[in-house]
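Input chain follows. Return structure tokens only.
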Amino acid sequence: HLKKVTDEFPDDVEAWIELGAVLEASDTQSSLDAYKKASQLLTDTVGADIPPEILNNIGVLYFKLGDYEEALSYFDQSLDRARQESIQDETYYHTIMVTTTYNLARLHEGLCEFEKSENVYKGILKEHPLYIDCYLRLGCIARDKEQIYEASDWFKEALQRNQDHADAWALMGNLHLAKQEWGPGQKKFERILQNPNTKGDTYSLLSLGNVWLASIHQPNRDRSKDKRHLDRALGYYKDVLHKDSRNLYAANGIGAVLAHKGFFREARDVFAQVREATADLPDVWLNLAHIYVEQKQY
């Protein structure tokens, strides 16, 4: 609908801004193009300054596209404009400045300038202790440095301030899974699904499928339970696909379950379809190789 409006009224700034907002999640480049068009109309036709919110959004889109130099330029412009505008409404523009400052910290992370990003996140938290994403980013930086206990502490800090934060629970769960602590990891993802607001969370369902699938690789397991555990894994993967039919990780999981059950041809077909959809999932190549070995197709 908005595309029709911009086609019919190409000078409608509001329509271009709305189109940019609508496309942010689904089409980064088109969203960027729409915001850039709106910015051009504002400066050239209307003779107005570009609002700091738009400058920030353009910076985020450049960041997503991996153009960190342009992203940095737009974040700086956004902060400058917000400072100038804050005379009119200090509270509102301060909020925008905090958001843009957080995005700058994410940019420093992307550039591997971790000390800078940590300092920015900690600076935000001094003023805004409820800015949960800062705790999560600090935890992720610690995790990536293999400082697992420090990472866990940051995630726990987030949960102390918001005990229903699904991302914090998921990050805690992943820490457990990385250490092969299946039971505690499983409980974290189940906690997410127990919350009415996140009961259909596909990431948690997928992770639980992976937990049950991983259980049959444990050397000291009770092998008589393998079939039940595989069925549970299959149930979770199917649930994910029911909610998100394009989830390749769930499809790959179903292929793995089929292979473990001895349905090699069916598993091979599933893996081949996943591979056709993306070449960026290394697991599927390994799984296909295992299938060919099983079928003696060396």
